Amino acid sequence: VELLAELANIRLSWHWAATHGQPTELSRAADTLFWLYESRSNCREGVPLFGQAVQGLERSATTNRIAGLTAAQQLALGQVLSYQGYFCFRQGQHPQGRELLQRSRALLQPLALSQDAPGRLAYTMTLAFLGTVMVGMGDYDEGRQHLQAALQIKRALADRWGAAFCLRQLGLAAFYFGEHDDAYRLLQESLTLGRQLGDNWSIVASLNLLSQVAYTQGNYDEAQRMLAEGLPLSRAL
User: Could you tell me which of 75, 183, 174 has the C-alpha nearest to residue 131?
Assistant: First the structure.
């Protein structure tokens, strides 16, 4: 709520940092700004917002090749490409989203391999997003591989929020495949993590998907109970 009240000022600050190609400032703000927009399902504004940062960082670099970027530019550009790509996917622009996420992965993978902690976190989020997009495009095998790799690293980093996201997407992939028992197990694990974190956004997302699995299995009372639990949380968000 406090961030939303200052959203106009935050956008102005972001625009300044993007225009001036300030990688440290953009990197510090990127995660919070992304989840602020995602929690409001505001993908329409998110795509150009992160696109501004991509353009500003690319202009400030001596070359667009990885070798021409500083580590700070590499991290920031990888982050904003990832978030722009995921928002494109959420708007139904699947191929464009996949392309942006593949560019992000190429930038962030060297940082992750060097054991750079912020780079590893950003890289695993890009892997999770890319896996989500690939599953959405019907490439279940590679999509699941990306999600499972991301989940493994998220667990090693004790990133419970990120692990919950990966579990939800793996559960959704299993649901698409007709593997309803696996889908239910993965989504229940995601819900448990959300409850541990006290994160209503994560709780609602897991309940929504679990209700779909329960409904498909004919467990209508359980599906209704989950939706009834999630509805007031969604309204509060």
Answer: 174
Q: What is the pLDDT of residues 137-174, one digit of tens each?
A: 999 999 999 999 999 999 998 999 999 999 999 999 99
Cα torsion 116, 193, 41, 211: sign: positive
Give the Å distances, CA to CA, from 211 to 102, 137, 223.
32, 23, 4
Q: Which two tokens stand for residue 69?
A: 């970027």
Q: What is the pTM of this model?
A: 0.89
Helix (H) and strand (E) counts in the chain: 12, 0
Tell me the C-alpha distance between 184 and 80, whole Å: 32
Q: Is 224 helix (H, G, I), strand (E, B) or coil?
A: helix
Model pLDDT, residue 63: 47
Q: Which pLDDT does position 66 carry in this prediction?
A: 54
CA 6 – CA 58 distance, rounded (Å):
28
**Residue position matching structure tokens 């109970």:** 225
User: For residue range 34-53, what is the model confidence (pLDDT) as tens digits?
Assistant: 988 887 777 888 899 999 99
**Which strand (E) or helix (H) includes residue 165?**
helix 160-176
DSSP state of 193: H
Q: Is-contact 82 106, C-beta < 8 A?
A: no
Give the integer Cα–Cα distance in Å for 64 and 73. Answer: 10
Are 86 and 99 contacting, i.e. CB atoms less than 8 angstroms apart?
Answer: no
